[in-house]
Amino acid sequence: MNISYYSGSMPINRLKAIFLFILLFSLSGMAQTDLPTVNFKYFGHLQIDAELVEKLNQKGTFSHASYAHVGEQDLFVTAQISKRISFLGETVVRPDAKSSSFFIPSIERAQLKFDYYRNHSFLIGKFHSPVNYWNDTYHHGRLFFPVIDRPIMFSYLIPLHTLGLRLQGQNLGTLRFGYDVVLGNGISSTDSKDVDMNKSLTLAAHIKPRDGLRIGASYYHDLILGNFSGLHSGHVGSSHLSSATRYKGNIRYELFSISTAWFSNNLELLHELSVNRSKSDSLGIAGNWSSFLYAGYRFNKLIPFVVIDYLDVSDKDLHINSMVSARYALGARYEFNPFCNLKIVAERLASEELIPLPRHNHPPSPSVYELKIQFAYGF
Amino acid sequence: MDFKSFVGVFILASCFAFRAFAQNPGKTEITVPGQFVLIGNTTGVSDLKWKQVRSIFKGERSFWQNGSSVLLVLPASNLPVAVDIAKQVYGSDVAGMQKFWLALVFQGRGKPPIFISSEEEIIRFVSQNPGAVALISATAKNRASEWLIPIIEK
Q1: Smallest Cα–Cα separation from B59: which of B48, B47, B44, B74?
Q2: In this structure, what DSSP letter does residue A320 have?
Q3: What's this model's pTM, rounded to 2 decimal places?
Q4: Which ipTM value was assigned to this complex?
Q5: Which residues pair with A182 in a beta bridge?
Q6: Residue A211: its chain B contacts at CB < 8 A?
Q7: Out of B13, B99, B112, closest to residue A260 by CB
Q8: Residue B6 and residue A262: Cβ atoms within 8 Å?
Q9: Which residues partner with B148 through β-bridges?
């Protein structure tokens, strides 16, 4: 393996020297092998949507539209830096209506992992918060999604990313127990700064008692200072109260989640349940919850499926727009091979409150019917 | 639909999953195949149970007992033995095996294995890399006798 060294006239202080020593110590493990240790992969999707949107105050009257669009394009890299240190990075270029090109780059994951003892690891960096099966498993890989869209709770309740420290264990014992303990900057932070000393805490555990079955539970706690949400927390956008109207006090945010994923050779079943408590000094405790149920059955390469997705946000909540929304979907997935699949979904979105669902381009409406076709790929 | 209804749906779904688990206790259990053999380099083990072999090839072990990293080597799809390994280890076809690894690596919960398209190359790779482990066809057994690890408790 060729290792090139930089030699310049940059002064090195003690801190840099220590860092350099640690880095060289870590890299010394590379001498054990001359294998290529960097892997690049690319994931993405293309999509065609057709929709009927019921007009406000005109029951039974619909506007309609159809369009093709380019979805997220995901550059994924892993590297084995030394025997015990590895890196994982995921950079996504994704649609953004506010950008002049309608796309923006985004660092979704950047994590260094140190395997300190057998299957126990210490990680530092930016992760997808391991609060439930979906967020811990699928990330931005539409290729792996069993359906086209994420559960509704991802636009409201789930703290998508955490930047911080993480202890992880996996495949321990006969039940293949796994755990994650994450201390992170929290919902108020951005990728470059946190505004306070309060840190988020995630405690998650799961078991895999047999192949294809994973059962997990988690608890997430954060104090959202001034009810401010950072850009990449998943707690921004039309789902959450705007800066002009939002409550400016602190919010104590707690999330309990339970996941059951069962993917056998034929049957596919995924249930996500999240219950959220948001406490403010103004209105007290608001209780919110969401449930996502997916069931599919595999016929060789074809998997027909159904989805029932539900969200209930309390009127007392001062962090998220209160609403009740439901999504019912019927669809099918066809897997050409492990690297490409096609999904077709017909769905109805219904909302008691006239709040537009994030990541949907339609205006506020009590009822929306959609037909979607998605090509997802990764290689 | 109220909260209680959805808790009911969740409990029902969980019971369904457990029922499937309980009703098919041996569905993915397999007998140790005779079509391939295990080879490894500086693994520190003298033999392995078939259950352990499956666990290792599913990425569930990061290190050997002697501290060296587990370096998995899998046959590329062009090799006939890949079909057997996919079926016996992963309970799927070769595409399923590839998808399994693509997903595991993407989750950040597994080190990517190395896919090699020739059994000669697989044997050479294992012989040159401490911690490397591979399954090769039984017909290639004599060419890798130095690296064989017996599979016990069939």
Answers
A1: B74
A2: B
A3: 0.84
A4: 0.82
A5: A166, A202
A6: 28, 91
A7: B13
A8: no
A9: B39
